[in-house]
DNA sequence: AATATTGATTAGAATTATTCTAATCTATTG
DNA sequence: CAATAGATTAGAATAATTCTAATCAATATT
């Protein structure tokens, strides 16, 4: 029973960013990065926890948070905070921005090229730009 | 003792947006909009509560949240969410964007003109743009 | 003018989101 | 192969925010 073969790519991915490929992290990485049908995901901690439970993975919510933050710190994910109690983790780590549908709470990628920022201000002395976030907040029109 | 004279401008301001000028709301509006020394404030609910307490205003934290959201809904404030547990209310409601100092948690206005967004993508059908938020995240360089 | 009625407002209690830390696990060393 | 050290996990604690029953205030009624 070669049970770690299907995970070898993920194992490598985790190791390459300095994270031990533990049972929990592997299971979560699988859900995040190898979800069937497309891979650009915007997922909350709670959602990922539900998916894990549904997939019979025994993992606590605290570990979900730990892992999501570790993955984010390692550059495997990007965190997008849209409103006070609502934080998404984005598996798309390329340079891009977001539409946020305020009514439904849904988030959607905008390819980086479609938002052109010209004339960024100079960052204050002693600082450098870590990231620029653009969120275009949308309302459903009665239409 | 004409004790409501000093508040008349605030009373008007609240009434004009359809909010009753209650004791709590008046006190909070005073702290927010008539703070001594400059008026562009980025304040959290907790901070405002502390200021109110220091100013001997009896008001609960729940009411702070209620009021901040009501003021925001009425267009007197703007909410800026910078990270998961950190939400600021901005007294500057003109079109502008923000620097966020990740190390200190401080927020700073960038005048609207200094960030030029050219070529915004077309909003998806059935939606209209409510607002565009640009947050430039900064790190302190060792320097 | 006093009281009743209705809806707005407040704040204690409850909930939700997130973090902390002690216990557990894993890798390495002797 | 046990001991040690450090990483990882998850239950418990905390922090942030919201809910809802009680309170307050405005208007209507007498």
Topology:
2 copies of one chain form a homodimer.
Chain A: H1 8-16, H2 23-33, E1 42-43, H3 45-54, H4 61-73, E2 78-83, E3 86-90, E4 96-101, E5 106-111, E6 116-118, E7 127-140
Parallel strand pairs in A: 4-7
Antiparallel strand pairs in A: 1-3, 2-3, 4-5
Helix pairs in contact in A: 3-4
Chain A binds a DNA duplex (30 and 30 nucleotides) through helix 4.
State the main characteristics:
DNA-binding; 4 helices; 7 strands; 143 residues; three-stranded antiparallel beta sheet; alpha+beta; 30% helix; homodimer
Walk me through this protein's architecture.
By secondary structure, chain A is an alpha+beta fold. Helices cover 30% and strands 29% of the residues of chain A. Chain A has four helices and seven strands. Chain A has helices at residues 8-16, 23-33, 45-54, 61-73; strands at 42-43, 78-83, 86-90, 96-101, 106-111, 116-118, 127-140. In chain A, strands 1-3-2 form a three-stranded antiparallel β-sheet. Chain A has a three-stranded mixed β-sheet with strand order 5-4-7, with no helix packed on it. In chain A, strand 4 and strand 5 form a beta hairpin. The first copy, chain A, is globular. Chain A binds chain B through residues 79, 81-84, 87, 99, 101-102, 108, 110, 114-121, 123-124, 126-141, 143, and chain B through 79, 81-84, 87, 99, 101-102, 108, 110, 114-121, 123-124, 126-141, 143.
Order of SSEs of chain A: HHEHHEEEEEE
What radius of gyration of chain A results from the CA coordinates?
17 Å
**Main pleated sheet of chain A:** 3 strands, antiparallel
Derived from helix and strand composition plus strand pairing, the structural class of chain A reads alpha+beta
Span from first to last CA of chain A?
Answer: 57 Å
Mean pLDDT over the full residue set of chain A: 90
In the predicted model, the low-confidence regions of chain A spanning at least 5 consecutive residues are none
Q: How many individual β-strands of chain A? A: 7
User: Percent of residues of chain A in helical segments?
Assistant: 25-40%
- Percentage of residues in strands of chain A: 25-35%
| Most extensive interface, chain pair and sizes | A-B, 38 and 38 residues
Strand order of the largest sheet of chain A: 1-3-2
Figure out the total of helices of chain A.
4
- What kind of assembly state do the chains in view correspond to? homodimer
Cα shape of chain A: globular
